[in-house]
Amino acid sequence: MTTSRLHPRPGEAAVLLTVLGLLILEEIALGLAEDDDRPVIGGILIGASGAGLLVVGAVLLSRWLDARRPLPLPPMGPNGREYSARALEGFPMEAVRPLLLAEDAPQLGQLYSAWMLAKSGRPATWIARRLDIPLDAAHLLVNAARSAALDQPH
User: What phi and psi, each to the nearest 5 degrees, are found at residue 149?
Assistant: First the structure.
């Protein structure tokens, strides 16, 4: 199961577009500068470009670390890794049943894992990306986990 995508996430896209916009503005500022001011402006622009490259590197490093971070696994049971009945308490089986019967359906184990991640507060987009399940399935599980958490007495 792969978690990499060719297009950036919305937050990453905003950062990358901001850096690209700053680089374009730097070129315009350097082109409009007087000859005497160009060395100073050039030095400032080199520093800003270096900072932009650091931001892009931080975004790429964040993505790489996110892809390498292991997902939580259920404990070992007699038949391999299994989720306990208590861990799956509140799982919306009737709501996910149509998803399991659809073409290219996620596996039940993926939905159980998504349920555990939803109960731990992970957002639907993150769950869908990490487990390679449809986004609507992740939204369904996140909404069910939220409503189950609201229904529990504190």
Answer: -70, -35
pTM of whole model > 0.70?
no
pLDDT of residue 143: 92
Contact 100, 108 (CB under 8 A): yes
Does 49 have pLDDT greater than 50?
yes
Looking at the chain, how many residues does it have? 154
CB atoms within 10 A of CB 131: 21
Q: Which pairs count as long-range contacts for 75-80, CB under 8 Å and 24+ apart, including other chains? A: none
Phi, psi of 80 (to 5 degrees): 100, -160
**Secondary structure element (H or E) that encloses residue 80, with its range:** strand 80-81
pLDDT of residue 71: 63
Burial class (CB in 10 A: 0-12, 13-18, 19+), 54: exposed
Number of H helices, E strands in the chain: 6, 2
At residue 23, the pLDDT reads 80
User: CB neighbours of 22 closer than 8 A, spacing ≥ 6?
Assistant: 48, 52
Helices (H), 70-123: 93-101, 108-119
Amino acid at 30: L
